[in-house]
Predict the structure.
Amino acid sequence: MVDLGERSYPIYIGAGLLERGDLLIRHIRGARVAIVTNETVASLYLETLRVSLGNIASDVFTMPDGEAHKNLATYTEIMDFLLSHRHERTTTLIALGGGVVGDITGFAAATYQRGVEFLQIPTTLLAQVDSSVGGKTAVNHPSGKNMIGAFYQPRCVIADMDVLGTLAKREYAAGLAEVVKYGMIWDAEFFEWLEGSAAALNAREGDALTYAVEASCRVKAQVVASDETERGLRAILNFGHTFGHALETVTRYERYLHGEAVAIGMVMAARASVAYGTLDDNAVERLKSLLASLGLPVTAQSVDREALREAMGMDKKVVGGRLRLVLSRDVGSVFVSDDFQSSIIDAVLTD
C-alpha cells in the first residue's frame, strides 16, 4: 500500500493476477476503459486483460516498443485516440506494459480532460519495482529524460509475477538494477541478501523474485508516502540516475536500457562518493561485483565526456543552477548534496 491519505492505493504482487478480473474491476468506476500497450506486450497479454475486464468496454492504443517513443509525438497520438473514440472524464486508462508505457499513460491520464483515473499493470521487472509505483509520469525531450510530466498517482498497481517469464534476459537484468538500488539507498540487509541470492534471481526462482519485488516496492512506498513530490527524502530514489539519465540522453536511448544506464550510474555515483570522502573502496567493489553477477554493465565505453557533463546540467535535480547528487555513506545509506567541487565530477567522468 502506498499511504497517501485519500489517494492511497494498493500494490498487488503475485502469480496469475492478470487473470483476476475482480482485482481490476474493483478499481474501475466508469463503464469504459482505454488500454495503452505496445506491440510486444499486446501479442502476449492483451487478450487476457480484455477477458478479465468482462463486460467493461475497452479500446486499445498500441504504441511502438522502446524508450525512443516516449515522447510528445506519441503522447499526442494518445490524445487523438481518446478524443476520436469519445472518451469522457469517467474513462479509466490502463497501462499494460513496461516503464515507457506506464510513464506515458500516466501523463496522458494526468492531462486528458484535466485528469482521468488510471491503473498500472507493469509487465517488466523494472516497471514492477520502480516506475509503476509513486506517480511519476512523463515523456522525454531531446534535451533530457522525463523533462515533461506530472506527479499523478494510479488507482492501483498489479504486478503479476508470471509475466516476467517472457522477459528477454537483458530486459530482466535491467530491472534488477533498480532492485539493487533499494539495497544501496535504504536497506543494507537487503543488499546482503541480494549478494547471496544472485544465482536464484538469475534463474528467476519464484520465491526469490517475489521477495525482491515485495522488498523493493515496500521501500519505494515508504519513501513516496513521506515525500510524494520529491521535496526532500524522495530524491534518494535517484541514486545513480543523474549519471544514468545523462548516459541515456547522449546515446539517444539506443545503446543502454534504462536499468543498464542506472547500473553504470550507480557505480559512478559510488565513485563520486569516494572522491567526496564519505564512502570506502570496498563498498564500491561490492556494488560492482553484485551488479556484474546479475549481468549488468558497470562501465560506459566511448561516451563523450563533455556531452555527458552537458546532459547532467539539464538534469531535473539541478536547483538554483547547482547540480545535486545522491551520494553514499555506506551500503544502505545515502544523502543528497550540492556541496561538492567540480573536480569530483571531472574525476568520475575521466574514469
Residues 206-226 form the longest helix (21 residues). The domain at 168-350 is CATH 1.20.1090.10 (Dehydroquinate synthase-like, alpha domain). The mean pLDDT is 95.
